[in-house]
Amino acid sequence: MKTLTTAEEEIMQHLWTLEEASVAQVIEEMPEPKPAYNTVSTIVRILENKGFVDYRKQGRGHIYFPLISKQEYSSATAKKFAANYFKGSYKSMVSFFMKQEDLSVQDLEDLLEEIDKNKKS
């Protein structure tokens, strides 16, 4: 899966939340200072060319919607991150974040609970 630039990922975050939207609707959801319409429109077209979004015509405009779910992208990104920085070892990656972020005992217990849930399903 192709990676997204920071700007592309920001647009995708809004499209994932909105599920479908015009460029103007995406801009409405963005924080101040809002980017120019042409900037967002260009990024959306790039996302379309990369296969992340598609559109349907509505009147004279377009309504864009994600083709890749947030879950799919998150999973692919996590795998690539683990492969590039931790030789594919999720254990090393989690250990790194435990040390860097100084996780609380509650955070660790929550992680163990999630692991147990995933083992059962």
UniProtKB/TrEMBL annotation:
- What UniProt keywords are attached to this protein's entry? DNA-binding, Transcription, Transcription regulation
Entry-linked InterPro entries = ArsR-like_HTH (IPR011991), BlaI_family (IPR005650), WH-like_DNA-bd_sf (IPR036388), WH_DNA-bd_sf (IPR036390)
Q: Molecular function terms in GO for this entry?
A: DNA binding
Supply one GO BP term: negative regulation of DNA-templated transcription
Recorded hits in SUPFAM superfamilies, A to Z, give: Winged helix' DNA-binding domain (SSF46785)
Under the heading Gene3D superfamilies, the entry gives: Penicillinase repressor domain, Winged helix-like DNA-binding domain superfamily/Winged helix DNA-binding domain
One Pfam family matching this protein: Penicillinase_R
The similarity annotation says:
Belongs to the BlaI transcriptional regulatory family.
Give the protein name, as stated in the record: CopY family transcriptional repressor
Report the source organism.
Answer: Nonlabens spongiae
